[in-house]
């Protein structure tokens, strides 16, 4: 049976409906697929101001001076040099026997968060972090006009053990023609709750967390930061807006101002309290195609990489967390930092 | 709001319904929750024949000689010294506001696969591997009589980077009062397919894989081994029985005989072809409470740990796999091994 191949495909597991990007690396031999080692901190930095030629041409930059791909920028967006999805072509959705697939169309971009060589987002100024948050917004607003694309996922891998391949502080954006399964499950679960209870589960969570107090890391005008009741990982931390809003790209200026402070505070607490851990964060946001959804709320999930996800978790989706979220939240609450 | 605590709890995420075991380690400080380093291979081995006193008292052993907790065994089962679930107590299912929880009741056992210090299951004799497979069977048959328990998950972490904390070849069993979410999703998805198409999705997969050929690693009398169409990880490999059977504990003697050969062959190919990688395998099997399910089939999912699961995957359940399963299967097919 012939199964036509392109270099990059989206393939759907026929049992559970999970989409996978198959993005073969033409240069990688099987032996080359090895564990990443620690990042070198003294090598060439393609994200440094002045090295603009070392990246693919920029898509967006906030600038003090200079033209495209010249120095003078503050935050800069470039296409990922090794993209998991590509912007050119048709989706060509197709079935092959029981399997479903389509071309891996989409955008895979890198947000370079600062022109100087800083590894920790926590050490960027609050104003710098706010501009990163605005860049996230601007890229989503731009990309959602492409009708082939359905969802945008913004995420950050900090440190080699969290999947980063360069140490200069950066985040990534993948906009794709499918809704990632975790987001879909959140949409389904929160919709069921809304239909049954008539309320937003995220609003109920905030209400209960504020009443319980024990899992709260910090509160700000627009956000509640807490370690969730059923945390999968030690020190898993969520940043949840107080006001209903399902799409990150609907963020307002007062929220960005506030979130810059919140991000810097939480990341600094983790850096100081947990010995500068590798970490990931992911912004969970509703699909482009929907208007504001009353049952869903965008939020940030932040995971320091303190323990491996072992076999039990990989196979079952059933997690063992050795740090109770109440203890994690208390530790982070009590980790003192200098005024930011 | 008071939320009563026990040392170990099962907690359910209220949005997506994912259960998490919260098993705080009383001795671990936050700083102690660090990445595991490589396993030492010259330290004390509590699983070695003669060191029976170093483990908790055995639950089961296949023996040539000796009494319980004495030398003379071939395969031995002991309770995990740091169990994620415990066998004593009531479930005490309860709600706390919007959250659901219960006590983490269950069994967490370690299957010591050989009396001598061997790190690689691939180097055990076929007969030894068959006895390990029989021990899996015997423990499930015994534990499913406990009406509090709903599901048994057998898994193996090989190598520190796959989550192992001891190098002596061993596997683990966690029997719990809930169905892990990944198994539940497989049950739901395969049930939908069965209701709609009137066939078992696993049978259709085998049929298409055998017709396509490109993802087949090997075939035996009772099993088909292949890299699945939507593989999440490089060299992800599934071992699927040809005959319908939803519960591993229904395995027959001819199947065990055959599976011993298959396991040794596949693990040896991975050891030789992929430079002795860390790996995990998990046996997916139906809940105890059901009779044989026509829509589900037990199987083994095997993942060599060749790449990290980076931020994108953690947050989204959306995987990027850099090795096409067709290439992985071809590589494993063509990896030659000595006659086993």
TrEMBL record, chains A, B:
Name of the protein described by the UniProt record: Galactose-1-phosphate uridylyltransferase
Pfam families to which the protein is assigned, alphabetical: GalP_UDP_tr_C, GalP_UDP_transf
All copies of domain Galactose-1-phosphate uridyl transferase C-terminal, residue ranges: 194-308
Family as reported in the entry's similarity comment: Belongs to the galactose-1-phosphate uridylyltransferase type 1 family.
Keywords, ordered alphabetically: Carbohydrate metabolism, Metal-binding, Nucleotidyltransferase, Transferase, Zinc
Lineage of origin: Bacteria, Pseudomonadati, Planctomycetota, Planctomycetia, Planctomycetales
Molecular functions (GO terms): UDP-glucose:hexose-1-phosphate uridylyltransferase activity; zinc ion binding
GO biological process: galactose metabolic process
